[in-house]
Hints:
Elements: H1 3-51, H2 60-72, E1 91-93, H3 100-108, E2 123-125, H4 131-142, H5 166-173, E3 180-185, E4 191-197, E5 202-208, E6 215-216, H6 227-233, E7 249-250
Parallel strand pairs: 3-7
Antiparallel strand pairs: 1-2, 3-4, 4-5, 5-6
Amino acid sequence: MSLEQEQKRSEQGDKEWEEQLRRSKEADEEMTRKARWARDEYKRQSLRAIEKGHVAGLSGHFQKQSHRRHSTFIEPSVSPVSSNEVRPRPGLQRAEPPLYRRRQSRRHSSTATQPLMDSPAWVRTPRPNSREMVILWFTEEQKPKQAGYERNSNAIAPWFHGIISREDSETLLMNAAEGSFLVRVSDRIWGYTLSYRTASGFKHFLIDASRDYYSFLGVDQNRHATLADLIDFHKEEVITTTGKELLLEACKRTGPSVDFGGLFP
Length: 265
């Protein structure tokens, strides 16, 4: 092949690559546009449902909470996840004065039993940016929902480990059987991470708890009223159709005393 022919072939290859790149960019832009439209449409439908006094797919108990949540939280868009933990989700930011209003209400108001986060002094921020904030969120929002407890019980579930790192969770699961699992509080989103033992390693599934239900991010469209409901559901139903992950055995806590990372002082 002559030099001229080789040059023409190279130019043709460049044109084909540029055309593929252009089509790929157009496809990405179209997907982004559709995702934005779907997100906006979901918000419109949600607001319309709230105005009518209900939210489709939620139980009556959680319908009562929805309007209040939409007034105090900013819900950002979320990218689907696979088995790895992903980008941050909304956080909870403390306003000044921090806990004074809570203490005062205990003495002078009958509303002391309401979560402090329902106060206008609390707003959503892009992410939980400190351990203190994670503990505050769990105490104010999740404890009243019995998150981390066994169903209809005051006993902490054996699968709940509180605030531990990804590395610690894998250490605990290292010698466990396939299908063993534990749940820990995530420091990336307002929610949890389910760490799962596979035949060859580990998987970490994010659980969104920023709304009035619990659901896996990106891999499962089922919504559950409680964290225990989600766990019990996936003892019988696989998390993903490809991995066929079933929650077979809880990885129990070890050691004489466990403080759950400060969640239960």
